[in-house]
Design goal:
The protein has 414 residues and is an alpha+beta fold. The protein has eight helices and 25 strands. The model has no long low-confidence stretch (mean pLDDT 96).
Length: 414
């Protein structure tokens, strides 16, 4: 994957009518995997407005190079040796005002998003979850270690993370079954049963495109060349199970039951106009984590619970950046592969209504959230629906959005 950017001119317009508030203007063109009732086999598409460019159908019409394998997953589009950048540029040309090539394709190669079923964009091999928001780490330290410094001694020296469970990553819209497990009520022995503190984690993740071979590192200066694109992530968390099990080895069953991602993979090229300097790091990180410029993304984020917006924040404030996270992952020579998912960790801001988990938003259940229907919540109840959204731009600049990351809680089978 080339390290050069391929920004689509903000003045370019599509012959398809795309509203200004759409997440998917011609400047975005994210990749995804979809199917339809008429064609149940998953295939590669690109979102534009409320439509999907069916790249498989366009290729069959002879308008896309045959070297691209456009079915099942994005491995052969955004991983080596394919050139996803060239494919996205071709899609932009086909959709631009004045281009009539798609007139020869049935339905002009378009499928309504409303008629499509979305699938996981990659066959996810490995999943890593980080802990890279300073505000989030400070909040959890104050909650659970009030007599000690809130940040642990290692936090500002390396991106803290753990390996999650790739088999339970699901696409937006999937039902989330309330997990069961061991929890420890106050002043009593542990019990087994459904979690009573089911929570969300508002995160942003990236998928890797080109990987490395075992024993080789990924230099931080070149780390972004290994990033295929970004998605929204809800790393659902059972706080009561987690609290009882996590010492001394960290998160386990309280986190591994489900992780939801948004279906469209937004490229770094689409996000390039919205890159910003990351927060100043003090102390300066070790040399293998130093990169100039060290860039984040000016990405607005919000959490909706049962039709009520309960939190708004921004990804730009993350202390550890994507480049530093990936360089750290590979610093011991581990193998990174196409389609691995790396999540940022909970994204939280400085105020209670800018936090990315209900643990922080309600201060571990002490201060319930008021919802539009008159009810309140501390943690999630069966039937609750959570929607994460994220977008850059707007207000006269192209809005580069991610679509929804949605999940509904269903009762445990226990």
């Amino acid at each position: 994957m080339s390290t050069e950017t391929a920004i689509i001119d903000p003045s370019r317009r599509s012959w398809l009518d795309v509203p200004d508030d759409s997440d998917f203007p011609i400047q975005n063109l994210p990749f995804g995997i979809f199917s339809t009732p008429d064609h149940p086999g998953p295939r590669v598409g690109i979102a534009i407005g409320d439509q999907i460019i069916d790249l498989w159908a366009v290729q069959r019409a002879g308008l896309i190079d045959q070297r691209f394998r456009l079915v099942e997953s994005l491995h052969d589009v955004l991983g080596p040796p394919a050139d996803g950048r060239a494919l996205r540029a071709r899609a932009a040309d086909l959709m631009s005002v004045g281009n009539t090539e798609l007139d020869a394709v049935p339905d002009r190669g378009l499928v309504s998003q409303a008629e499509a079923t979305m699938h996981l964009p990659f066959h996810v091999g490995d999943y890593v979850d980080f802990y890279s928001s300073e505000e989030h780490a400070l909040n959890l330290g104050r909650l659970f270690r009030p007599d000690d410094p809130p940040l642990l001694p290692n936090w500002k020296h390396l991106p803290i993370g753990y390996h999650g469970r790739a088999s339970t990553i699901v696409v937006s819209g999937s039902a989330i079954t309330r997990p069961t497990g061991q929890r420890k009520p106050p002043e009593s022995p542990p019990v087994f049963g459904p979690s009573v503190k089911l929570d969300i984690e508002l995160e942003v993740g990236f998928f890797t495109g080109p990987g490395n071979t075992i024993g080789r590192t990924i230099p931080v200066q070149r780390a972004e060349a290994h990033i295929a694109g970004l998605v929204l992530v809800n790393d659902w968390s059972a706080r009561d199970l987690q609290a009882w099990e996590y010492r001394p080895l960290g998160p386990f069953l309280g986190k591994s039951f489900a992780t939801t991602i948004s279906p469209w993979v937004v490229t770094l090229d689409a996000l390039a106009p919205y890159r910003v300097s990351a927060p100043t790091q003090d102390p300066q990180p070790l040399r293998y984590l130093r990169v100039e410029p060290n860039l984040g993304v000016d990405l607005n984020l919000e959490v909706e619970l049962n039709d009520t917006i309960v939190s708004r924040t921004n990804f730009r404030h993350m202390y550890w950046t994507m480049a530093q996270q990936l360089a750290h992952v590979a610093s011991n020579g581990t193998s990174v592969r196409t389609g691995d998912l790396y999540a940022s960790g909970t994204v939280s801001g400085p105020t209670r209504d800018s936090t990315g988990s209900f643990l922080e938003r309600t201060w571990n259940g002490i201060e319930p959230m008021a919802l539009a229907d008159g009810s309140t919540r501390t943690f999630l109840e069966d039937g609750d629906t959570v929607v994460l959204r994220g977008w850059c731009g707007g207000d006269g600049r192209p809005r580069i959005g991610f679509g929804e990351c949605r999940g509904v809680i269903v009762a445990s089978a226990q």
